[in-house]
Amino acid sequence: MAEIVNLRQARKHKARSEKERIAAENRAIHGRSKAEREREGLLERKATTFLDAHRRSPGHEPGDQ
Question: CA torsion sign, 17 to 22 to 24 to 25?
Fold first, then answer.
């Protein structure tokens, strides 16, 4: 025999699980702490400074002629 399901409760359960799935995706995308963002920015600035300091001729971009 089939199990009896309350459709109202089933819809609510489905909506909750969908909302939780979306929240998990958003946490993965935006879920970095301030310290992590600052550290990433610092590393990016440091790499840019390093590369700029080691150019062969300052102000000359590859491909410019």
Answer: positive
Q: Please, what is the Cα angle at 25 between 22 and 30, to 5 degrees?
A: 120
* Token pair in block for residue 18: 């969908």
- Residue 42 forms part of a structural domain: yes
Write out the residue range of the structural domain in which residue 48 sits: 16-53
**Does 55 score more than 70 pLDDT?**
yes
- Structural domain contains residue 43: yes
Question: In this structure, what token pair is assigned to residue 39?
Answer: 């550290």
Whether the predicted model's global pTM rises above the 0.90 cut: no
* Assigned token pair, 3: 């199990």
Per-residue tokens: 16: 């909750």
Q: Is residue 25 part of a domain?
A: yes
